[in-house]
Amino acid sequence: MEFLPRSDAKYGRSALGFFYYGGSIMEFFGFTLFGDLTGAPLLAVAAVIFIVGLFLTIKGGDWFVDSASWFAEATGIPKFVVGATIVSFATTLPELLVSVRAAMNGSAQLAIGNAVGSVTANTTLIMGVSLVAMAGVINRKSFALKGGLLLGAVVALTLLSSKLSLPTWSAYILWAIFLIFMVSNLIEGKKGAVSEKTESYEKKDIPAKILFFVLGTAFIVFGAEFLVSSGKTIASGIGISETIIGFTVIALGTSLPEFVTTLTAIRKKENSLSVGNIIGANIIDTTLILPLCAVIGGKSLPVDKVNIIFDFPICIAACAIAIIPTIIQGKFKKWQGYALLGTYAFYMVFLVLNEVGVVALG
């Protein structure tokens, strides 16, 4: 969840604004990547930064997933719970920091569209890839509660926004959902730690694992920033249109930490960690970060008509495809992954058509 500079404000009411609405974690810390470079020197630096970003995300993903998996095995806490809490908080921390800063500066107007777009992208694209590559059995009881909370949060958000604004008081309803989510994770984690026989581990390993988890998080976050910023610069420099850049590099960029984590988890056969991360990140987006924007901003968050007639229904449908059959069957099926990827393609096609003026979504 990020905030676009004013110069990109044209995306505000368009679909692209729902994916990416400003600034970056680099700007949050006061850094710039390219300074005043132009022409060939700019492209050369961008190419180097792209390679560095690729290395950081790949290496960071390895450290991040390995450390999270080790923590689950060492404590006995289910990997789904670790993914839904520790991993999700780590991958959404940049969104939280940038969102809070934007709200304090009075720039959180697009928070609703961004949150819904982020949940839709995470669920359709990232979970879709995960399920196609590695569908399997899930702890039905644990998933039913957390999946139900996510679906409930999206439906509640839709209803609360029906008058084209999200009132400040609704933050407390969404926070109640987040509280239930956290309490359930704490209870499940405690039970797992007590009942599961864990692998033996040396206490001296703990500082190193924590360090690699933190470094992995930082590598993923800043690597993603490097990839998106350099990718935009290179694409623009070789003449690719701003609209195409927006619907490829930028749209993927907002979910890149979760995407990197998922791809690494697939490679390491850690499906529960991946799914837990996606569910947790979506709940944090809708029930923690979004309410914070409303409360800190001190006023209702505006909701565009296109959110109501297009984005919310697509988001609810995507969550339903991912959650309801899984609760009934007790496991994921590959067809869910294909259905989610198909939903993502449908969503993106209509966003592009809306952007170029072929259809009018709102």
| Helical amount | over 70%
Mean pLDDT across the residues is 80
| Order of adjacent strands in the largest pleated sheet | 1-2
Count of separate structural domains: 1
* CATH topology (fold) name: A middle domain of Talin 1
Structural class: mainly alpha
Q: Which geometry do the CA atoms define?
A: globular
Give the name of the CATH architecture: Up-down Bundle
Largest sheet: 2 strands, antiparallel
Give the N-terminus to C-terminus distance in angstroms.
22 Å
Which residue ranges are poorly predicted, with pLDDT under 50 across at least 5 consecutive positions? 1-22
CATH C-level name:
Mainly Alpha
Q: What is the C-alpha radius of gyration, as a whole number of Å?
A: 20 Å
- Count of extended strands: 2
CATH H-level superfamily: NCX, central ion-binding region
List keywords for this structure.
1% strand; mainly alpha; disordered N terminus; A middle domain of Talin 1; globular; 362 residues; 74% helix; single chain; two-stranded antiparallel ribbon
